[in-house]
Write a structure and sequence with these properties.
Blueprint: E1 9-14, H1 30-46, E2 54-63, E3 72-82, E4 86-95, E5 98-109, H2 122-132
Antiparallel strand pairs: 1-3, 2-5, 3-4, 4-5
Length: 139
């Protein structure tokens, strides 16, 4: 398996009726919520934070297949890059083995008092590296 296919964290999310658009598949905007839910669960488990000390700076999504009511999506997550004050999540949203969406987001660590960017806390960096293991061998 290529390193780009390694996702050490997965969360399962059932599709709700409210997630659908008029064509009866998951609305494109809802995928951002799926990514957010998976991101927060990753942060809680891996760095014991809830994301309150960071902001979303960028998100990019590529839609590959529709998702419908009754499906449960698996949202696979990995950190693909650690910067000085930011880090990048890569995502794969799938139903079973079929990939419905791939995505990427960049989060920036911010000082809670000033709102300015700050270096990633050392304990976050260490926790992410330990969790991701060899996936982050380059960072």
């Amino acid at each position: 398996m290529d390193d780009d296919d390694r996702f050490p964290f997965t969360t399962e999310i059932p599709v709700r009726y409210r997630d659908l658009d008029t064509l009866e598949h998951v609305n494109n905007a809802v995928y951002s919520t799926y990514l957010e839910q998976a991101r927060v669960e990753y942060l809680r488990e891996v760095v014991e934070a809830d994301g309150a000390e960071m902001v979303l700076a960028h998100v990019e999504m590529d839609f590959r297949a529709p998702v419908h009511l009754g499906d449960t999506v698996g949202v696979d997550v990995r950190v693909s890059d650690l910067g000085t004050s930011s880090f990048t999540f890569a995502y794969r949203v799938r139903v079973g083995d079929e990939v419905a969406l791939t995505a990427e987001s960049v989060q920036v660590s911010v000082d809670p008092d000033t709102g300015s960017s700050r270096p990633l806390p050392d304990d976050w960096r260490a926790s992410i590296r330990a969790f991701e293991d060899e996936t982050l061998s380059e960072i």
